[in-house]
Amino acid sequence: MERLFLLSFVQLFIGFFVSGIAENQILPKTMTESISSISGNKLRISVGEETFTATLLNNPTATAFKALLPLTINMNELNRNEKYANLPKSLPINASVPPSIQSGDLMMYGSRTLVLFYTGFSTSYSYTKIGKIDDVTGLAAALGNGDVKVTYELR
């Protein structure tokens, strides 16, 4: 509970800070990097003995997802390119059709279905992007061909 309060306070502070800067249309790269590190945008994804690091986006969906962490869920196989699972609660979304899906994309399909893609492809479906695995080396092998237990936690 204390962690959730602290996270909410930091996000509120960042929101006020960024909105004040946005009025002047100036946001240096170093400032953007500082804001990302303050809000905890690094995610650890564990599959069996393998661990991957992902970078979360700064959007309401990713913020709501972080509030669910740490989270261990059974993810189901679909289409030999993704794992999916229903989350315990709905998240805010802003879905659109991406130009393409890339291996390592972490997205929401609808407001409750978390999807982790391990193969890239073109799609006509709408998703809300949460983040992306930084280095996908070994991701497909770790996820395997069937259902798998995956743990998501802030780094």
Helical amount:
25-40%
> Would you state the CATH class of the largest domain?
Mainly Beta
Instruction: Quickly count the helices.
Output: 4
Order of helices and strands: HHEEHEEEEEHE
Query: Which geometry do the CA atoms define?
Result: globular
- The number of strands is 8
Structural class computed from helices and strand pairing? alpha+beta
**Number of structurally distinct domains:** 2
Strand order of the largest sheet: 1-2-7-5-6-4-3-8
User: Which fold name corresponds to the CATH topology of the largest domain?
Assistant: Cyclophilin
Q: What's the overall average pLDDT, rounded?
A: 83
Q: Give the biggest beta sheet.
A: 8 strands, antiparallel, barrel
How much is the radius of gyration in Å? Answer: 16 Å
Write the layout of secondary structure elements.
Blueprint: H1 2-24, H2 29-38, E1 42-47, E2 50-56, H3 60-66, E3 71-78, E4 82-86, E5 105-109, E6 113-117, E7 128-133, H4 139-143, E8 148-154
Antiparallel strand pairs: 1-2, 1-8, 2-7, 3-4, 3-8, 4-6, 5-6, 5-7
